[in-house]
Amino acid sequence: MTRKLNNMDKAKLFKKKHDYWTKLTHKTLKRLEVMIDMQKQVWDMMKIVEETNTMITEMKGIILKASVNN
Description:
mainly alpha
């Protein structure tokens, strides 16, 4: 009887540890997904900024040409 109880305690302890590590793994994966999403958003914003800078540079060139011609 004592051996059975001891094994049951071990099984409960193992399950408790397993559940803890499973929850921790899921939390970590969720956080990684959030970080990846944020990184994608930053990359998208950087692309938009680059395009905007290109447009501003082109507009400066056009303005300079127009001012030289007048």
